[in-house]
């Protein structure tokens, strides 16, 4: 394509202060990538065996075809959550002698270089060779493979298109979820056999290989849909769009809480009025449903304890983890101003602490009905609530000391795709793995209930000493302020 | 009011600011001029303890800014738009700063009302976030916020830039009046020599990190600094 644009992107990444300092993130992502690749490979090797146990080889292929739609649906959701969008700061390019379509095409081509487009083939290749290739001719197998290939890329381009759309209207993701759930219901209750439809199409391709050519239309079509969308957005935002009056909600009652209240009001406005923290907060709401997934009873099997710890930390502490992992970078845009004010660093940290405490306690009560599924949730969640407030928040403060990257709140939502990839989930990992490890340690000595009491006690100690801890971090933050200011400037 | 002693800021051994000694008296409107890269913003950042000096110190009203935070009690500043909170309305932003500066609600309202002429009806009473303001209006918000609480030291980096001509005139008067009424010390930099020569009581020219001129303002100051910055044209030589 255009080598200039690629080298520009490369320099943008490598020359930000963030680069190279996020080694842990990169290692974590690499680990996840290897883990998923291996899992998919193993699954790909296992599928033929599993299917041929029940069906003849020919039947097995069409059985596989008929469940592929479900795979693509899940793939689409995962891509929404984890796949990163290609970006380019297009503004400086607009005035140069580069045609807009070129920038759009560049973005699309770069988007293809993504792990999510490689991953399916770990599964697909073994299946193609050891299952489909066994029963069908070389030509049929090849065209079948190509058909799936086209579908994978259709899904890729569709995911990107939706992501671009959702970025402008974040409720879109919920509509997608609802839509997919609706399609699932239609399919499940046999109103329209959607997955069977795709299955039949793929079966047909195995009989008439030339049909594959028709399928190529799909990715091409969605590709141009993307390009068209990008072209329509590749303008410096016009003022007229913004002239509409903003809905300004009043948080002045919080000022009655004194200095802490003032910062909590600031935090609330930050969350409500900026896209990125808002979607973070929204994620907390979705996560309330996560309990239905993990607390579901497996017949005849007791749920392992770590499920309850994971559940507790995610259901009660999701907000503190997802919002906290970017503390204090949420305030990075005006951090130097804050550092010129007579604000007490302690107040700044304390207000975050208070906000998270209030939200976490609220989450505890909202998720309490899960006790109807498992009574022990009452105390497992309580233990995790205490642990989260007493131990995880100090850890968040500690991680925040090393925050490097300025968060772009001010930029308009168009083309602002910072932190929409997998790495944003990664920061929370130690906060979740830590208590699981500790629990099993306590369990060795004091039994299962003792394990929860241990976690809860640890948290309680942290909460009792929160004032001392916050004092300590306030001093550390003041010491690091020059470095934070510098990092935020350079990223 | 502010003493600068032996101050050196270097990046990778390249010295960007070197001020052996400088005393800024109380009530002075201290004007700083210099070409790009002369070290103006660096100096202001050092006064505000936003960057660390390689050597030397800044003493503000007897307080070493590196060692104590008490200077914040009597200092207001506006360096650039990163001093603004983009997702607040102008009123909310003033309210936030007022809270930090321990101003009551009525005090704040009175104070802001005093700038109605400067705001020209475009800042307050708008349901619009600061991030959607024009550059000039953002600057106005920042300047007024820096004046809140009537601080004794006020640092403004290029306050005239991005302002329309009438606002520039208004700002000149505003700064002079504010200093006269409250006895505040101003540290101001700018590239428009006319503006800076008009408001300042003392002028300093920085070049490559060093002070090359330091004069109290007289009638002829403007001509002098203009002569300093004007490139030597051949026709002048003959």
Description:
The complex is a heterodimer of chains A (491) and B (238). Chain A has two domains: 234 residues, no CATH class; 239 residues, no CATH class. Chain A contains 22 helices and no strands. With 238 residues, chain B is an alpha/beta fold. Chain B has a single domain, classed as 3-Layer(aba) Sandwich (Rossmann fold). Chain B is 35% helix and 26% strand. Chain B has nine helices and ten strands. A six-stranded mixed β-sheet of chain B has the order 6-7-8-3-9-10, sandwiched between helices. In chain B, a hairpin with a 2-residue loop joins strand 9 and strand 10. The interface between A and B is medium-sized, with 31 and 31 residues.
Topology:
The complex is a heterodimer of chains A (491) and B (238).
Chain A: H1 3-14, H2 23-54, H3 57-82, H4 91-94, H5 100-112, H6 115-135, H7 138-168, H8 172-188, H9 194-207, H10 212-215, H11 217-233, H12 239-242, H13 258-273, H14 275-287, H15 290-294, H16 305-324, H17 335-340, H18 345-366, H19 377-401, H20 423-426, H21 429-464, H22 466-490
Helix pairs in contact in A: 2-3, 2-6, 3-6, 3-7, 3-9, 5-11, 6-7, 7-9, 7-11, 13-14, 13-18, 14-16, 16-18, 16-19, 16-21, 18-19, 18-22, 19-21, 19-22
Chain B: E1 2-11, E2 14-24, E3 29-33, H1 40-47, E4 55-60, E5 63-64, E6 75-78, H2 90-100, H3 105-113, H4 116-119, H5 135-147, E7 153-157, H6 165-182, E8 185-189, H7 193-199, E9 202-207, E10 210-216, H8 221-229, H9 234-237
Parallel strand pairs in B: 3-8, 3-9, 6-7, 7-8
Antiparallel strand pairs in B: 1-2, 1-4, 4-5, 9-10
Helix pairs in contact in B: 6-7, 7-8
């Amino acid at each position: 394509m255009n080598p200039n644009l690629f080298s520009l992107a490369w320099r943008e990444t490598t020359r930000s202060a963030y680069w190279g300092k996020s080694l842990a993130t990169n290692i974590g992502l690499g680990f996840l990538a290897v883990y998923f690749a291996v899992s998919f490979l193993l699954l790909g090797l296992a599928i033929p065996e599993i299917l041929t146990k029940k069906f003849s080889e020919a039947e097995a292929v069409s059985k596989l075809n008929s469940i592929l739609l479900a795979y693509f649906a899940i793939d689409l959701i995962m891509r929404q959550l984890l796949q990163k969008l290609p970006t380019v700061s297009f503004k400086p390019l607009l005035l140069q002698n580069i045609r807009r379509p070129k920038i759009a095409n560049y973005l699309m081509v770069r988007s293809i270089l993504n792990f999510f487009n490689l991953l399916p083939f770990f599964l697909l290749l073994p299946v193609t060779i050891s299952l489909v290739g066994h029963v069908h001719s070389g030509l049929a197998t090849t065209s079948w493979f190509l058909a799936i290939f086209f579908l994978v890329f259709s899904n890729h381009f569709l995911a990107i298109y939706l992501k671009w759309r959702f970025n402008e209207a974040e409720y879109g993701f919920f509509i997608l979820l609802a839509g997919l759930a609706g399609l699932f219901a239609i399919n499940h209750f046999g109103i329209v056999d959607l997955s069977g439809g795709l299955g039949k199409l793929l079966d047909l391709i195995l009989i008439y290989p030339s049909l594959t050519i028709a399928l190529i239309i799909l990715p091409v079509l969605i590709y141009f849909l993307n390009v068209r969308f990008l072209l329509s957005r590749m303008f410096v935002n016009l003022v007229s769009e913004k002239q509409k009056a903003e809905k300004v909600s009043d948080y002045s009652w919080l000022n009655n809480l004194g200095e802490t209240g003032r910062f909590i009001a600031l935090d609330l406005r930050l969350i409500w009025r900026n896209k990125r923290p808002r979607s973070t907060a929204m994620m907390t709401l979705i996560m309330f449903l996560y309990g239905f997934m993990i607390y579901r009873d497996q017949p005849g099997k007791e749920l392992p304890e770590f499920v309850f710890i994971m559940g507790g930390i995610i259901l009660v502490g999701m907000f503190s983890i997802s919002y906290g992992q970017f503390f204090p970078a949420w305030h990075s845009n005006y951090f130097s101003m804050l550092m010129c004010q007579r604000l007490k660093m302690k107040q700044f940290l304390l207000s975050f602490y208070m906000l998270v405490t209030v939200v976490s306690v609220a989450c505890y009560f909202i998720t309490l009905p899960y006790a109807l599924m498992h009574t022990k949730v009452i105390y497992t969640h309580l233990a995790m609530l205490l642990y989260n407030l007493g131990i995880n928040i100090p850890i968040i403060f500690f991680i925040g000391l090393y925050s490097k990257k300025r968060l772009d709140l001010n930029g308009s939502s168009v083309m602002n795709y910072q932190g929409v990839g997998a790495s944003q989930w990664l920061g929370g990992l130690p906060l979740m793995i830590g208590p699981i490890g500790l629990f099993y340690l306590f369990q060795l000595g004091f039994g299962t209930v003792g394990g929860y009491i241990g976690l809860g006690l640890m948290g309680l100690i942290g909460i009792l000493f929160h004032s001392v801890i916050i004092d300590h971090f306030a001093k550390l933050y003041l010491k690091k302020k020059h470095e934070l200011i510098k990092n935020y400037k350079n990223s | 009011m502010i003493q600068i002693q032996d101050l050196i800021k270097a990046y990778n051994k390249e010295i960007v600011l070197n001020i052996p000694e400088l005393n800024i008296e109380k009530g002075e409107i201290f004007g700083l001029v210099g070409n790009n890269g002369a070290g103006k913003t660096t100096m202001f950042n050092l006064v505000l303890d936003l960057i660390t000096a390689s050597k030397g110190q800044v003493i503000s009203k007897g307080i070493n800014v590196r060692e104590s935070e008490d200077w914040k009690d009597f200092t207001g500043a506006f360096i650039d738009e990163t001093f603004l909170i983009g997702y607040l309305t102008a009123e909310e932003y003033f309210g936030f700063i007022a809270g930090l500066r321990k101003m009551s609600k009525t005090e704040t309202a009175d104070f802001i009302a005093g700038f109605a002429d400067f705001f020209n009806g475009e800042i307050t009473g708008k349901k619009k976030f600061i991030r959607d303001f024009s550059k000039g209006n953002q600057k106005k918000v920042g300047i007024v916020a820096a004046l809140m609480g009537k601080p004794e030291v006020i640092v403004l980096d290029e306050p005239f830039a991005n302002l329309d001509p009438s606002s520039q005139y208004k700002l000149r008067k505003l700064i002079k009046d504010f200093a006269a009424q409250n006895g505040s010390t101003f540290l101001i930099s700018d590239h428009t020599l006319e503006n800076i020569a008009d408001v300042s009581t003392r002028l300093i020219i920085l070049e490559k990190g060093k002070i090359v001129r330091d004069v109290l303002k007289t009638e002829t100051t403007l001509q002098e600094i203009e002569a300093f910055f004007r490139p030597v044209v051949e026709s002048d030589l003959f």
